[in-house]
Design a protein that fits this description.
It contains 21 helices and 23 strands. It is α/β, with parallel strands linked by helices. The protein folds into 3 domains: 283 residues, Rossmann fold, CATH 3.40.50.2030; 158 residues, Bifunctional carbon monoxide dehydrogenase/acetyl-coa synthase(codh/acs), Chain M, domain 3 (2-Layer Sandwich), CATH 3.30.1650.10; 223 residues, Bifunctional carbon monoxide dehydrogenase/acetyl-coa synthase(codh/acs), Chain M, domain 5 (3-Layer(aba) Sandwich). It has a 6-stranded parallel sheet. The longest helix has 27 residues. The model has no long low-confidence stretch (mean pLDDT 95). Bound molecules: iron/sulfur cluster and nickel (II) ion (2 copies). The site of one nickel (II) ion has 6 residues, from β12. Iron/sulfur cluster binds next to α6.
Length: 711
């Protein structure tokens, strides 16, 4: 059979299955029964994107099946056949949605099935920073599980996000691959139709970050091809259905690399039978370049291990976390005096330490990183110091929580058994500091203290005074006290018309870029994503309008956005890309705003979930009344200050409220004299229904109720 014949055979088979499934479902549940995926604001996302149709009930499906069938022309033309591939995707999306009618079909499966909107949003930053350099989709059953596992581990070490479909899931798992979102290896499911959940991720990337208009299929295909760096690897023999699915991938711009003979289509469909070359061929097919730093330690060090938690039963050693004193500090030393790559451990290491309860080693810990360089500035110390958290978490077998003198570090037995010791922490920090900050760090030395008296004494004499100094400097940093703001254009790779403006009192909406970060990035990468915007005279101080800011936004968004205010959510609010940590929206009856964070999945008092609120904005679109922002902004005196500021906050999920309470209380107290403002803010443990929320606010005398009408 020719390639087009194969594609049509597969797509016709799927069309038939889809039609059958739709008819059966309607018979069983009736036409008015709801159909959809959990935690998304985009209905059946692929159908919504391709046609603009919002599928809500089973009765909406037969028309979609009609469209699907019309896409399968059976004409002997590759372009037409690729459309049949898209039809297969639509069919798979419908079949999978129907599987969700009886509850989560993945509850008993190793796969996770549908990927929710909040997860996709959380992937925005690592994708734009190149922390996740690409997306691998693996499918099938391998004749050789060992090499399969080697391929997956290789992607993992390179930081790629890997999705798996089919029996390769068990094969890789049995061969020791660590799996789960935390490890960037995501099992989707066993049925071939579950591959649709990764297609859905690609399509929603365009909806969420690109603000591509539903119904404009060609725009979606251009977006995924240009901006979503994905590819497909198939393992084992492939049947027509896999070929048809593969054709859908190719239509999206994702090359397919098979390990069996296939009719090759240059740049789109190819064979790589040698598994030792699969990774290389795949990365080349999407022009994905990987920057690796070789570090001399006995365990893997890769961004993919960032999310791993070390639990009690796998833990070998523990530091800090209120059990022992611990701190970390990056400070600038003298260029002439520092010795580059000098790593010293002073005190007991983890193997010669006392076993306190026969199992776990607990030690005090002080990590002193001294750097020096001609371009190094004091202001960059905190930027480097915050990276310790990430660098330590990259270690397979290490968990790092907190910062400064609240750090909490755990190491696993597995890492210990592989030979990991404290000096290796020094090696990792050294290598990453030199690699990531090469423009400012010419020399770096690391000293690790584990004797209680050292850790405590050095803290009092050297470390604490530096923290205090920095805090003073930080609180003096206001929008008024600096000459320049910064742009952040990182997210333009996904959201081409979005520009973040970063000020001392307003960090990037992803929460990852502060004004100091932006300043340091400018130094490290002069033509990079953070460029200074010299403020000049404000046009309107209350709303936060500057001609310089408007100009920077207009230029960098290619004219898509011409005006933004920095302090208002009603008048030309700052745009969003889509990866914001929180979104706030107006609750008119409470005369204030609710804020919902990405982790909260229930409905908020405005009747919308985070995902639904989030879908109101994004992709550089301005939607007055809705604004994406970072957690840190809750506690900034500039938070919608044009509309009355922090006092307008009437509701937040409890976890978020607890997280920001200290800073929020402090800022509100300084501005209004109100004590413990966070206690006046409602949360889901108190009330979600509008009336009950209002009752609570009244009982607390919440200030928003007495303010000018918000709209
Ligand atoms: Fe994206 Fe803005 Fe964060 Fe930069 S600051 S990475 S543009 S969200
Ligand atoms: Ni880790
Ligand atoms: Ni973003």
């Amino acid at each position: 059979m020719s390639l087009t014949d194969l594609i049509y055979a597969g797509s016709n088979a799927v069309a038939g299955l889809t039609e059958g499934a739709v008819n059966d479902a309607i018979e069983k549940y009736g036409e008015s029964h709801a159909v959809g995926y959990p935690d998304t604001a985009y209905f059946l996302p692929i159908i919504y994107a391709a046609t603009g149709v919002k599928i809500k009930t089973l009765g909406d499906l037969p028309a979609a099946v009609g469209i699907l069938k019309s896409l399968i022309t059976n004409k002997d033309d590759l372009g037409e056949a690729l459309n049949a591939g898209l039809a297969t995707a639509v069919g798979a999306e419908i079949i999978e949605a129907i599987r969700y009618l009886d509850g989560d079909p993945y509850a008993e499966d190793a796969g996770i099935g549908f990927v929710s909107d909040p997860i996709i949003r959380s992937l925005g930053v690592p994708l734009v920073t190149g922390d996740i350099p690409g997306i691998a989709v693996l499918l099938g059953e391998s004749a050789d599980p060992k090499t399969l596992a080697a391929i997956v581990k290789d992607y993992q070490e390179k930081g790629l996000l890997t999705f798996m479909v089919g029996n390769i899931i068990e094969q890789a798992s049995e061969a020791g691959v660590k799996m789960g979102l935390d490890y960037r290896v995501i099992p989707l499911g066993h049925e071939v139709t579950s591959v649709i959940h990764v297609v859905s991720v690609a399509i929603r990337t365009a909806l969420i970050f690109g603000a591509v208009e539903p119904g404009k299929l060609a725009d979606f295909l251009a977006y995924t091809k240009e901006r979503v760096p994905a590819f497909v690897n198939t393992f084992g023999p492939i049947d027509e259905v896999v070929v048809a699915v593969g054709a859908g991938a190719i239509a999206l711009g994702f090359p397919v690399i098979a390990d069996v003979e296939v009719p090759e289509v240059p740049g789109a469909l190819m064979t790589q039978a040698d598994h030792s070359k699969t990774v290389e061929t795949s990365l080349e097919s999407r022009d994905i370049k990987i920057k690796v730093t070789k570090i001399d330690v006995p365990v893997s060090v890769a961004a993919a291990f960032e999310g791993e938690r070390v639990r009690k039963d796998t833990m070998f050693a523990e530091f800090g976390g209120n059990k022992t004193p611990a701190w970390e500090l990056v400070t600038t030393g003298d260029l002439a005096e520092l010795e580059d790559h000098k790593i010293t451990v002073i005190g007991p290491d983890i193997d010669d330490a006392m076993f306190e309860d026969g199992k776990t080693v607990r030690l005090p810990l002080g990590i002193l990183v001294e750097v020096a360089g001609k371009e190094m500035q004091k202001d960059f110390e905190t930027v480097l110091e915050r990276r310790i958290h990430y660098f330590m978490n990259y270690i397979d077998g290490a968990m790092h929580v907190g910062q400064r003198n609240t750090v909490w570090i755990r190491l696993t037995k597995e890492a210990y058994e592989k030979g990991f010791r404290l000096k290796h922490i020094g090696e990792v920090l050294y290598a990453k500091m030199r690699a990531d900050f090469d423009n400012v760090v010419d020399k770096c030395q690391v000293t690790i203290y584990t004797k209680k008296e050292d850790v405590e004494e050095i803290y009092e004499e050297r470390v604490k005074p530096i923290y205090v100094q920095r805090d003073d400097r930080m609180s003096a940093l206001t929008d008024e006290s600096v000459e320049e703001f910064y742009t952040c254009l990182l997210c333009q790779s996904f959201a081409p018309s979005h520009v973040c403006i970063i000020t001392p009192e307003r960090l990037g909406l992803c929460g990852a870029v502060s004004w100091l970060d932006a300043k340091a990035t400018k130094q490290l990468d002069p033509s990079g994503p953070n460029q200074p915007v010299v403020k000049g005279q404000a046009i309107d101080e209350r709303l936060g309008i500057w001609a310089s800011v408007n100009e920077a936004v207009a230029t960098n968004s290619q004219g898509a956005v011409e005006k933004v205010t920095l302090y208002s959510i009603l008048e030309d609010p700052m745009t969003s890309c889509g990866c914001f940590e929180c979104i706030c929206g107006i609750m008119p009856e409470a005369n204030g705003v609710v804020i919902v964070n990405r982790e909260f999945s229930d409905v908020s008092p405005v009747g919308m979930t985070f995902g639904e609120l989030a879908s109101m904005t994004g992709g550089g679109v301005q939607t007055p009344g809705f604004m994406g922002h970072g957690r840190q902004l809750i506690g900034s005196k500039k938070f919608m200050s044009a509309e009355g500021g922090l006092e307008r906050i009437v509701w937040m999920p409890k976890e978020l409220k607890d997280d920001v309470a200290e800073r929020l209380n402090k800022a509100v107290k300084e501005m209004t004299g109100i004590e413990n403002f966070a206690d006046m803010v409602c949360d889901e443990t108190i009330a979600i229904e509008s009336e009950a929320v209002l009752e609570f606010l009244e009982s607390k005398g919440h200030p928003a109720l007495a303010m000018d009408p918000i709209m």
